[in-house]
Amino acid sequence: MAAKSVAKSTPKAAAKTAAKSAPKAAAKAPAKAKSPTVTLRHLGAAIAEKHEMPKKQANELLNELVAMITSHLKKGARLRLGGLGVLHVRKRPARMGRNPATGAAIKIKASKKVAFRAAKELKEAV
Question: Which phi and psi (to 5°) does residue 44 adopt?
Fold first, then answer.
């Protein structure tokens, strides 16, 4: 049998050990639990069940909706979805930024982004 090392049992040694392990324990705080992610397939299954239609048909309907929204946004249109909110494209101009690793100045290209503004009904419901 191998001999086990015996730890010091003095109060001073115990305090040192506790002080050394305290920062490690604080750094390993438990992360917040993530909320579940609902996908188009989940929504399609719920719609299919509620309206007594095949899941495949409900999923196709939702995919077509996403495709239509995308095509309208590409054209520059604003989409107002009652009870949900407004989707529109915002243009972001070119700007100067900094590389966080080196601190060097870099040029960031102009871009477009999709912006969403929640409707009053949605804000009140959440």
Answer: -60, -40
86 pLDDT tier (thresholds 50, 70, 90):
very high
**Total count of residues recorded for the chain:** 126
Q: How far is CA 34 from CA 29, 30, 31, 37, 44, in A?
A: 15, 12, 9, 9, 22
Name which residue leads in pLDDT, 109 or 9: 109
Q: In what order do the strands lie in the sheet with 79-81?
A: 79-81, 85-92, 111-118
Integer Cα distance of 39 and 42 in angstroms: 5
Answer whether 0.85 is exceeded by the pTM: no
Task: Report the C-alpha gap between 52 and 43 in whole angstroms.
Answer: 14
What DSSP state is assigned to residue 117? E
Q: Are strands 95-98 and 105-108 parallel, antiparallel or unpaired?
A: antiparallel
pLDDT one-digit tens code per residue, 38-53: 999 999 999 999 999 9
Give the per-residue pLDDT at 33.
Answer: 79
- Does residue 59 contact residue 47 with C-beta atoms inside 8 Å? no
